[in-house]
Amino acid sequence: MSTASPTATRSSLVPAAVLSLAISALLLASASWGDGNESNPARRFAITLAVAILCAVLVFGWAVPRAQRTPGGSTAIVIAVLALLSMGVYWVGPTAVLGAGAIVAGWGDHTKNARLQRTAVVLGALAVAAFAALSLLELIR
User: Fold this and answer.
1) Is 113 or 97 the better-scoring residue by pLDDT?
2) Cα torsion 112, 114, 120, 125: sign
C-alpha cells in the first residue's frame, strides 16, 4: 500500500495551476490589448494577472489540497460556485483559475458523494468556458 505525501500531492497540482494561469493570462492579455477603450493595457494586464496568480496560490495551494484530503465534494462545490459567481467580475481574472480548481478538486475519489464532485467538475468547466467566451466576445465588440 502506497500513500502519497503532501509534497507529492502539491507538486502534482503544479501543472494544473500553471495551465489555468496560462489560459487566464492568454485571455486576459487579449482582453487588455483588444479593448479599444483601455488607455493603459499593460497596467490592466499586470493587475488582472496578479489577481489570477493570487487566486491560483489560494486555490491550488490550500483549497484543492483540502478537497483531496477530505473527499466528499463540499470543498469542490464551493470552489465551483465561487467560479460561477466570479463571472460577474470575469475581467478581473479569477474565473479560469477557480474553474480549473473546481475541476481538479472534484476529479478523484468518488467513494463519498460522487454527485457533488461530478457537479463541481461540470460547473467548473462551464465557468472556464464562459470566461473564455466572454473574453473573446470582448474582442468583437
Assistant:
1) 97
2) positive
